[in-house]
Each structure stands twice: as C-alpha cells, then as structure tokens.
Amino acid sequence: MANDQELPSNWGRWGADDELGTLNLITEEARARGAAQARTGRTVSLARPIRPTPFVSGPFAPLARDSSPVQQIMQYAGDVPATVDMILVTNHHVSSTHIDALGHQVLDGKVYPGHPLAESVTPAGVRHGSTAAFAAGISTRGVLLDLAFDGPLPAAHPITPEDFEAAEARQGVRLESGDALVLRGGWAGVVDFEKPLPGVTLDAVRWMHQRGISLYAGDLGDAYPPLETAVPAPLHRVALPLLGMPLIDVAEVEELAAVCTELNRYAFLFVVAPPRIHGLTGVPVNPLAVF
C-alpha cells in the first residue's frame, strides 16, 4: 500500500472513539439542503430486488442454482393463523444492496479511527465500527453523477475527478460537504468477473475527501481486476478505513437515472434507514431518493 502520508485520512478528526466517520459531515444544514429537494414526493428505490433461495438438500434439490444473498427456511406447522420463516443473510454479497460499516475493512491491524482489530471485531460481534453507527438513519442531499449518459463506461475504465467534474458541469449540479455521491457507470447487474470492471481511482477518493462527501453509493465501486497496484481498492482500502466513509455497494441506479433525466434534476433527498441491528460489519439496505 502507498505510504500513509500520501493517503487522505480522517483519523483523529472527530476524536479517538468516533464511529460516525464522514457521517459527521451531515450537519443540520446538510439535512435541510436534502429535505428541500423533496418537492413532489416521488420516490425511487436504489436497492436491487432479492429472491431468497430455500435451504434445500437431498435428491430433490436443484442441481444448480444462482447464488442468493438471502436463504430462507419456511416454518409453519399444522393449522395456524400465520406463517413464519427464518432467513440467513450474507451481508457482503455481490447481488445485495448493502451498506458497509467502518469495521468491515481493516488497515494495518486497526479499525477506523485507529482502534486495534482485536478490541473492535470479536467472535461475539463488532464492538467498534459496527452498524450501530447507523441507528439514527441517514438523511442528506444525494447527487447522481451519471457517467453513463451516452452508454456504459468502457471495461477497466479508471474513474477520475475529471469524470466527476465533467458530470457536474453537464448536469448543472455541484456536490457539497455532507452530500451523498451516487454514481452510475452503466454496469448494473454485471457479475461476470471475466470482464474487467471500471472502478474508482485513488485520486477520485481524494476528490471525495476534499469535497466532504458523506457517503458513496453506486453500481460500480472498486475496479476488478485492480487498476492501481499501490492501493488496489481505493474505496474499500482508503475511503472506508481511513476516511470513515460508509459505502453502499451494489446500488440499483437505472431507474434513478431515468427519473433524473425526465425531471432534469440530479439532486434529491437521500434517505437510508437500516434495520437497528448492532454489532454487524454491514447490513442490507433499501436507499430511497425522494424528489
């Protein structure tokens, strides 16, 4: 990894025990700026639909089945007035829209903002940097930067600050401190790892730090295979553990882009209300854009 002096960091910025990270940038002013975007009440979900697969085995089980982030056991017995089930959720799954907590990534044996891993993440759950930081929900202004306005980004395209600023100029919008950045690269639903994915560069993460981005969501994240050798996954190896920036992976942004184009509005109220399950490294979410 690159020398720590070359990497942007928020360690110590909000205190040694901080667990909010860049969510600290969502001030009352930022929330009000977001609320002002909700003018008509039209709402768009940024979550990918999930169809659970059953826990099945034996001679009648399917020989092949697409992997699902949610597995289900139906539990009902006899003549009952209701049906119930149990589910097993794989939080960090390539087909699940989920938010990464700050304890998800470890840097040199430490969790943001410098807590030893052994004290932060234990077999009994996450004690520091967990989903507990999302208990109050997240509400701010969201801004879509549509990099796929004339077609999907090319394979292995490095997403740079120049891409961000060109989108701002094209759309007539500017990201401000406390805003959530929502990115569209036109690669929704791509899980073919034989095809090189575009991805965010380290310079783009530096740009987010300078602008004061509070949260990142997109249909693209880190490139695969990595585009940079010194920092192979800038979002997950720098933005999350050093900046303390929560990441919403596998966001579904096609409908959002269509609505933004229809309304010629690329800013909206962005709301995330994860379930209040503490002690996790991440959790599925249904982010909402409200116009």
TrEMBL record:
State the superkingdom: Bacteria
Q: Where is the signal peptide?
A: none
Query: One Pfam match, by short name?
Result: Cyclase
InterPro entries hit by this protein: KFase/CYL, KFase_sf
Q: Name it.
A: Cyclase family protein
Q: Which organism is it from?
A: Streptomyces silvisoli
